[in-house]
Each structure stands twice: as C-alpha cells, then as structure tokens.
Amino acid sequence: xxxxxxxxxxxxxxxxxxxxxxxxxxxxxxxxxxxxxxxxxxxxxxxxxxxxxxxxxxxxxxxxxxxxxxxxxxxxxxxxxxxxxxxxxxxxxxxxxxxxxxxxxxxxxxxxxxxxxxxxxxxxxxxxxxxxxxxxxxxxxxxxxxxxxxxxxxxxxxxxxxxxxxxxxxxxxxxxxxxxxxxxxxxxxxxxxxxxxxxxxxxxxxxxxx
Length: 210
Description:
alpha+beta, Glutaredoxin, 210 residues, Glutathione S-transferase Yfyf (Class Pi), Chain A, domain 2, globular, 2 domains
C-alpha cells in the first residue's frame, strides 16, 4: 500500500492514525504542498483533485481522507474504529464531519492563500479567521464528547472520531489557539498521546518534517 502524504496535512494525518490503529504497513510518497507538487501532471493522474491524501492499494486509488478511513474500516474490520450500533456509528460520523466538513475546509492551505492573495488579508486577520472556525467546531465537539465520550471522543477506545480530532488539535496549537475552554477535548488529546499509533503518526515524525 502507498500513502501519498504531506507531513503537515491534517487530512493525511487522520489517515496515518487510522492506518496505524489498523496495523497496516504502507510506503509513504511525500507530496510537498509548498512546492506545488500536488499540481504536477504525474500526481494529478493519480488524484485528479490534486490534494493529499490518496491511498493506492491493489491497483486502485482511493482519495478523500474520510472515504479512505471508512474503506479501511470496511476492508479491515479489526480492530474496529466504529461502534457496533447504528446510532453510535452515526455519532462518530457526526464528530468526523464537524472536523472534516466544518472546520478544516475553511482553514486549509487553499483558502488561507486565497484570503491573502485575493482579499489582502493580514496575518492577524487570517489568525482570527482560523480561530473563529476552530472555536465554533470545538464548542460543538466538546458537547458531543460530554455526551458520548468515556476517555476518548466516543466510548472507551479510539474511533475514527479521534483520528479526525487529534490532527485538528495539532492545527489549533500550530495557530496559537487557546485550548483551555475545551477540557474534554484536552483529555482526549492526552489519552491519544499515550498510544504509540497516534505518536507515530505525528507530523514531526514524518519524512520531510521541519
């Protein structure tokens, strides 16, 4: 299996965590977003969207981080990263969507570059923009973890919700967002940090990391 990756991509970070939790070995192909490698013809022949991550396995390419994680859960069901019951699975998917649909798309590299280039946003304005959407999403996740968490975002062990949450916590720290208002998220972050699978997926341990 190949993972087309960029060390600081939070979407790729999600997939690295899921792969590690599933015990799947893979080869990393680094796609440097800073140099525009994602727009190169050879990479766009693999992923026409020109984004990371992408996974290549058995002659097939799968894109979009949440689709990759769901595919992993379906093809490698052990250990499970989704609850057994439909309501539980829906709750985990809702948590995933708060990150993958509501926070991350507004704060990704393409959007931040557009804010600078097209609207002349200052760095202070960009930082405020980032914090605004992280705050809105984390307020929601804090409440959902209060409802469903028992040490992790949902239940007593890691799920795909944690795979999405932890990279977003990394992003919040990167952009100096004060995390004190969300003690439940911080407790989940601490629990995940104690697991080798999360530690091995951390951006600082990836090829090309600064």
